Amino acid sequence: MNRLPAPLSATLLLLYAGGCATLGHQPVEKNVVQWRERCQAGLEAARRGSADEAHELFAGAVETCPVDQRARELYAETLWESGQRDKAMIHMQEAVRLSGGQPELRVRLGQMHLARGEQEQAAAQASQAISATPQLACAWALEGDVLHSRGQHD
Q1: 48, 78, 119, 129: which one has the fewest Cβ atoms less than 10 Å from its Cβ?
Q2: How far apart are the first and last CA of the chain?
Q3: Which of 102, 41, 31 is nearest to 73 (CA)?
Q4: What is the DSSP string of 6-45?
């Protein structure tokens, strides 16, 4: 059984910490309950270091609620850690789209691009994140990493 590294487990827990609340007192649909249960169980599995179980649970959460950005993001991270980089990129791109271009997600997508040697795509994500939130340190760090990878050390 694969185990998730401790930093990834902590990251996954932080990503999900906000939870998901329904508005008002309307009944919660069954698929929302299933999505929440799968995400929660996936986070618990990640915390325990059970990468395979977390992967399956996050995949189920995406299947149950394909329009949820958080489920996509969590699933993308487990895919990335398991070496399924192409599939991870697809899900992270969808998470960025579903989030409306959340700068922090753009930075993570840019980091993934950079890890794959895709400097132009990484630079574009950094630029868009900086444009949206100029004070976002991780976006500037990504831009610096892109420049460094291009040999522009100045």
Answers
A1: 48
A2: 44
A3: 102
A4: HHHHHHHHHHHTT----STTPPPPHHHHHHHHHHHHHHHH
pLDDT of residue 17: 46
The structure tokens listed for 51 are 């990468």
Residue-by-residue DSSP string for 71-83: HHHHHHHHHHHTT
- Whole-model pTM: value is 0.76
Give the Cα separation of 145 and 142 in Å (integer). Answer: 5
Q: Which residues contact 136 (CB under 8 A, 6 or more apart)?
A: 103, 104, 107, 129, 130
Alpha carbons 27 and 2: distance in angstroms, whole number: 38
Least confident range of 28-42, 66-80, 130-144: 28-42
